[in-house]
Sequence to fold (433 residues):
Amino acid sequence: MSSSGLPYASAAAPAAPSSPAAIPGGSAAAPVPTTDGRAAALSSPARASAPGVLPAVEGGPLADEGLVQLLTPSGERVSHPEYDAYVAHLTDDDLRAMYRDMVLTRRFDTEATALQRQGELALFAQALGQEAAQVGSGRALKPQDHVFPSYREHGVAHVRGVELTQVLRLFRGVDHGGWDPVAHGFHLYTLVIGSHALHATGYAMGVQRDGLVGTGDDERDTAVVAYFGDGATSQGDVSEALVFAAVNQAPVVLFCQNNQWAISEPTTRQAAAPIAARAPGFGIPAVRVDGNDVLASYAVTAAALERARRGDGPTFVEAFTYRMGAHTTSDDPSRYRSSEQEEHWRRRDPIDRLRTHLEARGALPATFVDGLQAEADAFGEHLRTAVRAMGHPSAASMFEHVYATPHAGVEADRTWFETYESSFLDAREGSHR
Fold:
């Protein structure tokens, strides 16, 4: 793939990886030049021959050769020698359930974006275009597994049974996240980029020390997943998490959704090789998967989780996908990417891919489609009603739940704030509040 997202001419693509440890990308070759010439500079003879400098990987971080894929963009089922076994048990009912999850997740995105535009939410981070990576990987989890999300894992939250109106409490500013992480095996959203990769690794080390790994009991052995984007891999916290995960053989899956944009910064400005190629340097096996393929995302994650639960340590998964929407509702992607690139990826829509596959199998009856549309409409109405009923939190609520136990500094700040607020005249009564 070029930095514009369009296919580029290259040498013959290498075969798909036969194990999680294999990192595709091809032999050394010049990466596709970027608009500022950085990629071209990386491939110059002087640079390539410099001592201690590894040659650039063909295609750089946008290389799409060797991605694990079970459904092509046209919905055709293709075989994979390693990962077919992980989807062999899935029935048409299972595929329709995945389709439903993706449709409802997208409806959630659409409604939440509209609510933000109407002033009902302060901000919203879309997952538009990333539904397959999230739903596929989320459905591979077992009840005892635990997830550490960033802030756009709405599809995973839905699969884990989180009431999505609770997610919107965060974006409305009502609270810091309104669900029980233990009940759902799904931690609260993390807004500090990359920090939760360390939380997930630490939690996985705790699971390991509690004897919940490698027992052979399918209902006991536990894995942990951390979801983050390509931009987060530029943060030191993620690097530290990789170190701790590797040396402790922690039962954690580090799941990177490479949607090609860290806010407005393209992946080509953050890496000269595929993102997943970083993991083996830490001693962690890695695999790249077509993140717009829900079956492949399911299979690759299931294999990584299985490996973690039996005590074989961490796996790095890079789901190569595309952020079809904005980074958040405060962002304007038209300022930094082309409409041609967006259209290229729109033709690879993950929901359309699964729908086409189901239709070709005769497994998507009109009654199901009509019922799902009615369910999505009712879901949209529920979201609108629930958000508008949330009201607005008092300013003093910012001092609540800062620490688990009373804290003198917080209480002093609360007292000062209450005194400050009471110093203002109440316009309605002409007196101090």
Q: What stands out?
A: The two ends are 61 Å apart (CA to CA).
